[in-house]
Amino acid sequence: MTAQLIDGNALSRHLRADVSARVTALKSRGITPGLAVILVGDNPASQVYVRNKVKACEDTGMHSVLERWPATMSEAELLARVDALNRDSSIHGILVQLPLPGHIDAQKVIEAISPAKDVDGFHIASAGALMTGMPGFWPCTPYGCMKMLESIGYELKGRHAVVIGRSNIVGKPMALMLLQQNATVTICHSGTQNLKAMTLQADVIVAAVGKRNVLTADMVKPGAVVLDVGMNRNDEGKLCGDVDFEGVKEVASWITPVPGGVGPMTITMLMVNTLESAERLAG
Ligand SMILES: Nc1nc(=O)c2c([nH]1)NC[C@@H]1CN(c3ccc(C(=O)N[C@@H](CCC(=O)O)C(=O)O)cc3)C=[N+]21
């Protein structure tokens, strides 16, 4: 058996068409959704991601502002920029690209973003809203994973979902979203004793570690659904995920590729969050 692909590019096209239509409707009421992206320093990977985000905005008819600052920018200067964007009525979403240079306290910067414009969903107010089921922005990567499961009509109720990784950006919010859909959720991490024993019990596996071959075919129950959040480079410099795709696709029922899986969905959900921020403001 070979798994079916959950195509993040195709699903993104579909969802972005809906975003475009809603952007057009908002524009007819005199509001153009606007996203501000702040990039500090010249991390080459960040340059690519940030360009993709700005391009996605343009494609859906949104307004976007890209601010590039030197790595030597002070924390106070960055906080002042965030404050200015908080008060800028043409901006509905603010994204400060991570990682930030070491002399800047990233959490402090995130908490300076108005929760109403926190389209990354990283602010503690957004995290608290997700945890309690209150309205708020969901982090784009796990939100995109949920949309991928929805796209295949997957019913999570009563299923066992295993999340590998416990970051604030992916692992923890992913677990909460799966829980909200009534899955039984296990979070595995670097301290987990027997990872394989856990993943073999899983109906859904989300790999979000940032390391190649974290999940191999022998660790997957036949028919499981596998979502690969990893964004790594292999020895030939090719983009690859956390999952041994070639092996696991022979065991799983559905699998997301890298590239063309969760990555484009992350950007799509950023568009959705920015649009919804503008819609909320419009009433
Ligand atoms: N404040 C903040 N918010 C983020 O959302 C954020 C961030 N910082 N820092 C970095 C990570 C990484 N990230 C990606 C998004 C899309 C792709 C993506 O579109 N990947 C393409 C391939 C891109 C390529 O060719 O390199 C794919 O998987 O098909 C990748 C990575 C967002 N991040």
Automatic annotation (TrEMBL):
Functional summary from the UniProt entry: Catalyzes the oxidation of 5,10-methylenetetrahydrofolate to 5,10-methenyltetrahydrofolate and then the hydrolysis of 5,10-methenyltetrahydrofolate to 10-formyltetrahydrofolate.
Occurrences of domain Tetrahydrofolate dehydrogenase/cyclohydrolase catalytic (ranges): 6-120
Residues that coordinate or bind NADP(+): 165-167
One function term, GO molecular function aspect: methylenetetrahydrofolate dehydrogenase (NADP+) activity
Domain of life: Bacteria
Signal peptide: none
Name recorded for this polypeptide: Bifunctional protein FolD
Keywords on record: Amino-acid biosynthesis, Histidine biosynthesis, Hydrolase, Methionine biosynthesis, Multifunctional enzyme, NADP, One-carbon metabolism, Oxidoreductase, Purine biosynthesis
Entry's family note: Belongs to the tetrahydrofolate dehydrogenase/cyclohydrolase family.
Catalytic activity: (6R)-5,10-methylene-5,6,7,8-tetrahydrofolate + NADP(+) = (6R)-5,10-methenyltetrahydrofolate + NADPH; (6R)-5,10-methenyltetrahydrofolate + H2O = (6R)-10-formyltetrahydrofolate + H(+)
One Pfam assignment: THF_DHG_CYH
Organism: Hydrogenophaga laconesensis
Pathway: One-carbon metabolism; tetrahydrofolate interconversion
Enzyme Commission identifier(s): 1.5.1.5, 3.5.4.9
UniProt-listed SUPFAM superfamilies: Aminoacid dehydrogenase-like, N-terminal domain, NAD(P)-binding Rossmann-fold domains
Oligomeric and partner information: Homodimer.
Domain Tetrahydrofolate dehydrogenase/cyclohydrolase NAD(P)-binding residues, every copy: 139-280
